[in-house]
Write a structure and sequence with these properties.
Its cofactor is a metal cation. It is a single chain. Helices cover 41% and strands 19% of the residues. It has helices at 7-10, 27-41, 65-78, 104-115, 126-129, 132-144, 160-169, 183-191, 198-207, 216-219, 222-234, 252-256, 262-265, 270-282, 342-359; strands at residues 19-23, 48-53, 58-60, 96-99, 119-122, 148-149, 174-180, 244-246, 285-294, 297-306, 318-325, 333-338. The longest helix has 18 residues, at 342-359.
């Protein structure tokens, strides 16, 4: 039996480009550290992690990464203050900053870091999925500055953005993109069969790490809006966020609930979503939260799709995206795979770090 050798080992070791700073020490950041440590132990040529940072502290990396991670997370619980990484004094051209946060403040720094020749690898969707001006600034800065690894922002590393950009570079014209872009919502509606209340499924998804700690973030459709904006902008469409019409699944009383009262109010989801499930099933359809943009506009909402629809394939946390273009006019190009979870997101971040390391060696 032949031995399978990882591609990064087939190419041989590369010089390490500068240092690496990890911003965000939560679930994704912890998964990143664990996977980074495994790859380094296997001989991958990764830049040294010099800093682990969160909104409260900055800890030096080094050999004991797990110890540094625990120290940073403990500091985040104890202290308040101006985040030390925000001044950007520690980073130098050639360094790689990994943004594992969901912070608007951090996203605001992306274009400046890139312009200074600092590479940015991000799971933070606010960079190119938030304010249009910031997204355009990132696009300008990446053209002449550092490299921007954003494959973790949509589909947790599925080849969505790479495929889309390759099509456009080859002269294809994109007419529409539609997709099940939230792994958490895909899981919820795949399991919503009437045997359990929807609220019980939300609690299970949250405990499994599929949703945000406050599941209203997922149920509001805002996460899907951001991903749809990222895809549209990658397709060359300068789509402003306010032009995406979003149907929230969160009833008003649940939306108004204080953070510590959310769990007790989740039952407010049940009646309406069960009625919609029953109606869809009677028509031979399946409920999916779909984001779509085309020449007529952009929207996010719950749709009842026929079983044969390309977005109805897959299971679990799978993302499914259909790209309609000149090349794919008779039937769309469909890309599918797992789209939620800290492990796949961390893997996508490290894939981008490895790609940048190889390209800049």
């Amino acid at each position: 039996m032949s031995t399978v050798v990882p591609l990064w080992r087939e190419r041989g070791p590369h010089p390490r480009p500068g240092h690496l700073a990890l911003l965000g020490t939560g679930t994704v950041g912890s998964a990143f550290i664990a996977r980074y440590s495994r790859l380094v132990a296997q001989g991958a040529a990764l830049p040294e992690i010099a800093w682990l940072c969160n909104s409260r502290t900055q800890i030096a990396g080094g050999v004991d990464l797990q110890g540094a991670l625990a120290q940073a997370r403990a500091a985040a619980r104890r202290h308040a203050g101006f985040p030390p990484w925000a001044e950007g004094e520690s980073s130098r051209p050639g360094d790689i900053i990994v943004d594992a946060t969901a912070s608007e403040t951090v996203a605001d720094w992306h274009p400046e870091w890139l312009a200074r020749g600092v590479h940015v690898v991000t799971a933070n969707k606010l960079g190119t999925g938030g304010d249009l001006g910031r997204a355009l600034a990132i696009d300008d800065a990446r053209a002449s500055g550092g490299r921007y690894g954003d494959s973790a922002t949509v589909g947790a590393g599925l080849p969505l953005l790479r495929s889309l950009r390759s099509l456009i570079a080859g002269g294809d014209r994109i007419h529409a993109i539609e997709g099940v872009l939230s792994g958490s919502l895909a899981w919820l509606f795949a399991h919503h069969d009437g045997s359990r209340p929807f609220s019980a499924l939300v609690r299970q998804a949250r405990a499994s790490g599929y949703t945000e700690p406050d599941p209203r973030v997922d149920l509001s459709g805002e996460d899907v809006r951001r991903k749809l904006l990222i895809l549209a902008r990658a397709a060359g469409i300068a789509l402003p966020a306010h032009e995406v019409v979003v149907e929230s699944l969160v009833p008003e009383a649940l939306a108004r609930a204080a953070g510590d009262a959310v769990d007790a109010c989740l039952h407010l989801l049940d009646a309406d979503l069960e009625a919609r499930r029953v109606a869809a099933a009677a028509a031979g359809a399946r409920l999916c939260v779909v984001g779509r943009f085309d020449a007529q506009g952009a929207s996010v909402g719950l749709r009842a799709l026929p079983a044969a629809h390309p977005l109805c394939a897959g299971s679990g946390t799978d993302n499914r995206v259909a790209i309609h273009s000149d090349r794919y006019s008779a039937q769309p190009l469909v890309i599918q795979g797992p789209g939620a979870g800290a492990e796949v997101t961390a893997a996508a971040l490290l894939d981008d770090v490895l790609a940048i390391s190889a390209a800049t060696a």
